[in-house]
Amino acid sequence: MHYFCHESLGGVWRVAVRYVIAAACLTFLAGCKNANQRPAASISGRVTLDGAPLSAASIQFTSPKTGESAYANLDADGRYKVTFPQADLGADYEVSFGPPVDEDVDATALAENPQPRATSPIPKKYTERTTSGLKANVATAGDNTFDVQLLSR
Q: How much is the pLDDT for 58?
């Protein structure tokens, strides 16, 4: 017959408690990491100027939390879709408009031989995120909608 002494079990209990504490810490740290993740989200919609689709333009969204920006060119019907791989959910993104972005243009060649600026139909107040007065809330991961009605006056 074997008898277990309380003292011999003390070492086993100490090791078991250490493992439980280590597992709890790892679980807590894994939960913190997931809490800081920013999910993907998109904003899509239609832009009009004085009731007509705005097509020769781009729309830009800037996060007030991180300063990160994303843009999209508007199609012939004024529609766009911007995707954020990591969005700030619940944030009101600042919105501005500019000329269409041509990603195939060589920036060095353009800097050496600048092209004359084309006249833009976009009223000046909408060309800066700080003066446009437009904010789009990214409420959820996935798809969000933001239609814009610009006025020339």
A: 96
